[in-house]
Amino acid sequence: MTDFTLASSDALVILIVFGVAWILWGWYLGRNNRTLDDYALAGRNVGFALATATAMATWITSNTTLVAPQLTYQFGVWGMLGYSMAALGLILFAPLAAKIKQLLPNGFTSGDFIYQRYGKAAWMAFIVISLCYALGWLVSLGMAGGLLLSSLSELGYVTGMSAILVICVIYTLLGGLKAVIATDFVQSIVIISGVVFIAWVCIDEVGFSTIHTNLSASQPELLNLLFPAAIMFFFNNVFFGIGEIFHSNVWWSRAFAFAPSVGKRSYLTAGLLWLPIPIVTGFIALAAGSLQLSPPSADMVGPMVAAALLGKIGAVFIFIVVFSALASSMDSLLAATSDLLTQDIVKRVLIPDASPNRLLKVNRLVIVGLGLLTWCVAALKLATLGALLNFTGAFVASTIWPIVYGIYQPKLTGGFAAGAMIAGTVAGLIGYFMIGFYVAAIISCALSLLICQIGIRHSQTFFTWHSLKE
Known about the structure:
Its main location: membrane. It is found in: Membrane. The chain crosses the membrane at residues 12-29, 41-60, 80-100, 121-149, 155-174, 181-203, 223-246, 267-288, 300-326, 389-408, 438-456. Keywords: Membrane, Transmembrane, Transmembrane helix, Transport. The protein is mainly α and 470 residues long. The protein has one domain (8-383): Sodium/glucose cotransporter. Helix content is 79%, strand content 0%. It has 22 helices and no strands. It has helices spanning 8-30, 36-41, 48-59, 62-75, 77-84, 87-103, 110-118, 120-152, 157-205, 208-218, 228-247, 249-257, 263-274, 277-285, 301-350, 356-378, 385-391, 393-396, 400-408, 414-434, 440-458, 465-469. Helix 5 (77-84) packs parallel to helix 11 (228-247), helix 19 (400-408) packs parallel to helix 21 and helix 20 packs antiparallel against helix 21. The longest helix has 50 residues, at 301-350. The radius of gyration is 22 Å and the shape is globular.
């Protein structure tokens, strides 16, 4: 056991203190929730500061704090730069968020848009893709909680995974989106402060020249800007990040929840603030060789380097930062996915005449169910975080063009939109297994674009926007 590992008692104290704090705050924020709009969309009137903070904090997740260092450890300079390009998803979604609020002022989910714009077939394909992605992201967050505890403390993987899930499920259950957004605001401050401090210590203790010399001697390919697989990853991650945000109800629910005129500004600001964070967290991983660290798994390199630099106190510090990053994403995903299941499956298919009060109860039950399902799958630990997340790239990249054209191009029909999503997903999965994870999103997005273009060229119909507003 390394000298920076936290004792199990210390780790449990941190978990209990933070868990109780978030749960009590969630209860306090949600005590005045009276309607489904209050619970699911925070009253549809979230201001600029909270909107920006929740968008940025939600995107700072296990991807940024654990997977960005992992990919930098594997792909070098292109790993950190490629991950930073996920900021384009937030930036490019900014104008879409304003348009979404305009077109669907009373909308609840991304599924609402797809159903009304394209019809049932495209909606079914979209829901399957959305739920596959949501489960993959939830499982990766649960896994990240387990990996965090097992790499920084004497507690086991299952304990860490269970703790993050239980805490997030309870305060999301109690407070709804209000609790999610308010905790995200505090968590974003903790995350940014922590990441900047760790990077500063890394530069001060190890230094750019030492890291460069060590990498040049032992792993020169990590500094090679012509590293083929890394270049492919760079472009793949651009489309993956855009697809993640464009399709996910996490971001659509916020577009509906933000006050009028806030969505565009908040998403743009959040993207610009988020962009340098993966570069900073990725850079930390490059110091692993200089510190003579050999992580048992690549997705543990970030916390191990940071803890080695800061010692036992640093391990506590890193624990808090990464825990905040995981919680800020898991609570958002639990809330948004429960909304999608409640509104698109229960209300639209199973109980069409359900009252708002009944749907509110269903929504809460779904949150608990999602937590249990995530625990069961994450306990199996079937893949690394990077492999699991990039598997979903084939799914989400296929939705980019159907969504963009659905908003801005009235000629695309539901049949071609459904075909683009299904064919793009299948082609991306074939590329994932036959070539590598770093091409799945590119292939999926390219084929989806081709099918959408064919559909537009051959279409003789025009969608009327006033019907969507109604």
